[in-house]
Amino acid sequence: MPGAKGVDAADRLADIVSCSFPRAELTELARRWEKHGSGDLQMLLHEEPSRTEQARIMLEAILSTGDPGFVQAKDVAAVNRIVQLSANMTEVIGRIHSYYRSAFRRLYYQRNFIMHAAKFDSVSLPSTTRSTPQLVAAGVDRVVNARFSIRGVSPLGLAARAQNELALLATPGGRPLFALLE
User: What pTM did the predictor assign?
Assistant: First the structure.
């Protein structure tokens, strides 16, 4: 039911979280390497206070030399996701976006079942409440950060920006992975 208020809100949040995902992944990798890594990459990350620049440095390191030597499986998996994202941004982020959109729409439908039909026995309620809280928190965090940034971007403004960034992926006007919503 495209065009419904809740579905639009779910889709907008999916846009925001989809654009935020690569930066979050790169920032977390940079933080871990800065703390537990070694060599020139660790020194570069330690000297750079900006999280955006740390994400850029980590992306460049991964793309030029591959995995710098992460040991934990979750970090190795994150590096592999970044490599896949970089190789085919539109396809991979498009796939991620569709997962997020489905999750947020399911949450909206569950909300309707509870609020309007007083139904708590939906078979998909447990899986929805297991998978979406962290995603909603990530989206809300991004909205709040944008709102209280120097530019003071409104939630709808951020959603419009995210929609544009998704449309511009891998085009000359598109931003790099580490700065989709910067």
Answer: 0.88
Output the six-digit token pair for 124.
């998909």
How many CA within 13 A on the CB side of residue 1?
Answer: 9
Taking Cα atoms as reference points, which of 81, 33, 89 lies closest to residue 57?
33
Amino acid present at 133: P
Single out the residue of 162, 175, 169 nearest to residue 12, CA to CA: 162
Residue type, 76: V
Dihedral of alpha carbons 73, 39, 56, 88, sign: negative
132-135 long-range contacts, CB within 8 A, separation 24+: 132/103, 132/104, 132/106, 132/107, 135/17, 135/100, 135/103, 135/104
- Residue closest to 41 by CA, chosen among 52, 23, 56, 20: 56
pLDDT of residue 150: 87
At 70-113, the pLDDT tens digits run 999 999 999 999 999 999 999 999 999 999 999 998 888 777 66
- Amino acid identity of 153? V
- Alpha carbon distance 82, 86 (integer Å): 6
